[in-house]
Design brief:
5-stranded antiparallel β-sheet; 239 residues; alpha+beta; globular; 7 helices
């Protein structure tokens, strides 16, 4: 359900892409109240969510590989590997470094949490001015849950199935800790992107994780009842 505080109507939104229209439809059909100040604010969210799905697909088809931190790699022209993650080199622009992940993906290998962070950074960059992005996200350190506070990433209990949301498939009987679960971006109805697994349905994601359990495992992987997404209202201030 969408509530527009200025009493306008989403029917006034023109020129939406098919993906944006799909996302808008999902939000409108939700039982949760989503409040916006005006149409520009919801249009911004639709654009960022669209970019999240598109950048997920780009990474899926890229040469970037899955790796644990000891075996990971980032382009050394932009990044220095530290104990806590990859730190952007002095004098390098965050916007250029994030673009490089997608343009020279063969130089990168990382795990699924880092994948989500990179997708978020790229999707924000695609929707705000590069100079704003560089100001917001400098200095920059990336790996796992290490990211700039201005990312405005939030996680809450419950699932609403809006494309661009990120979900977690837990794998309690994992063999290798790197496969204790998979962070996955919802691209469209029952289509998830998880780095290292690919674009699959809910059932196929569970099936893939179940092949990565310890011997004699009895607990199946499952979709955790939580959602991670960007705080679009905060990010809109920089649009």
């Amino acid at each position: 359900m969408i509530i527009l505080k200025d009493d306008s109507s989403t029917s006034s939104l023109k020129g939406l892409s098919p993906t944006e229209s799909m996302i808008l439809n999902a939000i409108e059909k939700s039982k949760i109240r989503y409040e916006y100040n005006n149409l520009k604010e919801i249009a911004f969210e639709l654009k960022v969510r669209e970019r999240i799905t598109m950048n997920s697909r780009l990474l899926n088809s890229s040469a970037a590989t899955f790796a644990t931190f000891p075996n990971s790699s980032f382009n050394p022209y932009y990044w220095i590997k530290t104990m806590n993650g990859y730190r952007l080199r002095a004098g390098r622009r965050p916007s250029a470094a994030i673009k490089d992940v997608f343009e020279n993906s063969y130089l990168y290998s990382f795990e699924c949490v880092t994948t989500v962070v990179l997708i978020y950074y790229k999707s924000i960059l695609d929707t705000i001015r590069p100079e704003y992005f560089d100001r917001l996200y400098s200095p920059m350190l990336i790996w796992g849950h290490n990211f700039n506070d201005a990312m405005y990433m939030v996680t809450y209990e419950g699932i609403d199935n809006i494309p661009g949301d990120v979900f977690y498939f837990s794998n309690p009987d994992y063999e290798d800790p790197i496969w204790m679960g998979e962070n996955a971006v919802l691209l469209e109805k029952d289509q998830y992107f998880g780095h290292g697994i690919g674009i699959v349905t809910h059932d196929k994601m569970v099936e893939a994780l179940n092949t990565l359990r310890k011997m004699n495992a009895v607990k199946s992987a499952f979709l955790l009842n939580q959602t991670t997404r960007l705080d679009f209202t905060e990010l809109y201030k920089y649009s």
